[in-house]
Amino acid sequence: MATHPSPQARTRVVDVGDSSPLVGVIYDEILHGAFIPDELISCDRLRAILRDGLGVLTAVVDGEGRPLAAAVGEWDPGSRVLLLSYVAVRRESRSGGLGRLLMDEVRGAWQQRFRPEMTLAEIEHPAAHSGDEERGDAAARVRFYERLGARALDLPYFQPALRPGAERVYGMLLIALPPLPGGGGPDGPVDSAPVRAFLTAYFVESEGAVGTDPASARLWRAVDQAGGIALLPLSDPSALPLSHA
User: Fold this and answer.
1) 200: part of which helix (H) or strand (E)?
2) pLDDT tens string 104-149
3) How many CB atoms lie within 10 A of CB 72?
4) 91 in the Ramachandran plot: left (φ > 0), alpha (ψ -120 to 50) or beta?
5) What is the CATH number of domain 1-116?
6) What pTM value is reported for the model?
7) For the chain, domain boundaries
8) How many whole angstroms separate alpha carbon 155 and alpha carbon 204?
């Protein structure tokens, strides 16, 4: 397990490998409470992507090694897209800068490790998800990413069903994190080719195929819009596309 210095007193940032006991602790004590079951991959899946070099798990731990916050990334080498799948902070440790500390790793060490074409993240649309005390507030999360300079892809995005028996999660935003794709400006557009390749691999892995239902048709039409995919500011969530079944 590699460690890195942290500016936070009595904490440090660590990269967590698949065989570390911290994987189970992070999954059970941090991720499990922060995301609804349909949004969360299994712990076995998390260990597998770490083992196969297709993911990264970074955590902030206290002086006793107890994880306080964690970020999970999934790497698709075919499209060269890095997906920030999860960022979560223990409820009692929120508002202490740990989320921003993790994002420094996402924008720094993760970029150096994978050299992605773009880094994307899935977040809940405030119009569809209110959140709660345990999971946090969707609108506050959008504001957090807005402060980081993220932009929403102009897509009616939904998360595919991640495993048999799970349901799709509609009302999601797919956002691009700095550095913005292709070094372009904050309004894009983004080349649709890597987005299409990433989403194709993601949906085939999760659902077995790219869907032909109405929600899928709306998503793929937006992916293939002429001139690329626009990047939209997060300042007005009501103006952002909203998916539905």
Assistant:
1) helix 192-207
2) 999 999 999 999 999 999 999 999 998 676 777 899 999 999 999 9
3) 24
4) alpha
5) 3.40.630.30
6) 0.93
7) 1-116, 118-245
8) 19
